[in-house]
From TrEMBL:
Protein name: Probable 2-phosphosulfolactate phosphatase
GO molecular function: 2-phosphosulfolactate phosphatase activity; magnesium ion binding; sulfopyruvate decarboxylase activity
Organism field: Clostridium acetireducens DSM 10703
Cofactor(s) the protein requires to work: Mg(2+)
InterPro entries, A to Z: ComB-like, ComB-like_sf
Annotated catalysed reactions: (2R)-O-phospho-3-sulfolactate + H2O = (2R)-3-sulfolactate + phosphate
Keyword set, alphabetical order: Hydrolase, Magnesium
NCBIfam families: PRK00886.1-4 (NF002055)
Gene: comB
Known EC number: 3.1.3.71
PANTHER family given in the database record: 2-PHOSPHOSULFOLACTATE PHOSPHATASE-RELATED
Lineage per the UniProt record: Bacteria, Bacillati, Bacillota, Clostridia, Eubacteriales
Family: Belongs to the ComB family.
This protein's record includes keyword Signal: no
Length: 235
């Protein structure tokens, strides 16, 4: 299996994703939120790029839709939830349609339209994601959402862990960057000691969201793999 990595949402090029399986990773925190919400019974997730777009969809039926996401890592005015995965408890999210807009994660998803398949992954569902990719048996491009167009250590090591899981079950042909991600993971299996140096980890910590960090850094606690298709993410 050929495996490549794109380091940020801003670096996605149509020719790089054509006919490929894409895995979107924004472990801090957008893809961790999406995986958690769907695991907790959310019916579907609708990623959008702007706050206005989100509000316009939600106003059609305020019982059906919940609004979630962030700007500058903070809850958006008029929204129901922030971009903390811990907000998305069964009692609030079960049976609802979540409209989400975030700075980097939803952008990475939307910019991957045109790929063969678009999967949503994080550390919390890493092994399940690797298994699904093995079943699809297509070339893989991992899209790291990154942070404001820049490389993110957190998404990179998460990609490395997933590549490592895949490599345990099939032979892989990684690009240099994909090989480096796996190497970084293998030398830092205690992910937190590596991620704590990431700028976005520090930002979330400064906001006193330590429980979010703890949760997003757990490996393999969820076994679903959401997929984006026809504007909607479902399991
Ligand atoms: O950029 C994003 O998509 C967010 O996940 C960033 S934050 O962790 O919510 O600040
Ligand atoms: Mg991020």
């Amino acid at each position: 299996m050929n495996i490549d990595i794109i380091i940020s949402a801003d670096d996605i090029k149509p020719e790089k994703i054509l006919n490929k399986t894409i895995l979107i990773i924004d472990m801090l925190r957008a893809t961790s939120v999406i995986v958690t919400a769907l695991y907790n019974g959310c019916k579907e997730v609708i990623p959008v790029l702007t706050v206005d777009e989100a509000l316009n969809i939600a106003k059609k039926d305020r019982d059906k839709y919940v609004l979630g996401g962030e700007r500058n890592a903070l809850k958006i005015e008029g929204f129901d939830f922030s971009n903390s995965p811990l907000d998305y408890d069964k009692e609030y999210i079960k049976g609802k349609s979540l409209i989400i807009t975030t700075t980097n994660g939803t952008k990475a998803i939307k910019r991957s339209i045109g790929a063969e398949r678009i999967l949503i992954g994080a550390l919390i569902n890493a092994k399940a994601t690797a298994d699904k990719i093995l079943k699809l048996n297509n070339d893989l491009v991992i899209v790291n959402a990154g942070t404001y167009g820049h490389f993110s250590m957190d998404d990179f090591i998460c990609a490395g862990y997933i590549i490592n899981c895949i490599s345990e079950n099939t032979s892989i042909n990684p690009t240099d960057i994909a090989k480096t991600a796996q190497y970084i993971y293998k030398n830092n299996e205690d992910i937190v000691s590596f991620i704590k140096h990431a700028s976005h980890y520090k930002r979330i910590k400064e906001l006193n969201l330590k429980e979010d960090l703890k949760y997003c850094c757990l490996k393999d606690i969820i076994n679903i793999v959401p997929e984006y298709k026809d504007d909607i993410i479902r399991v």
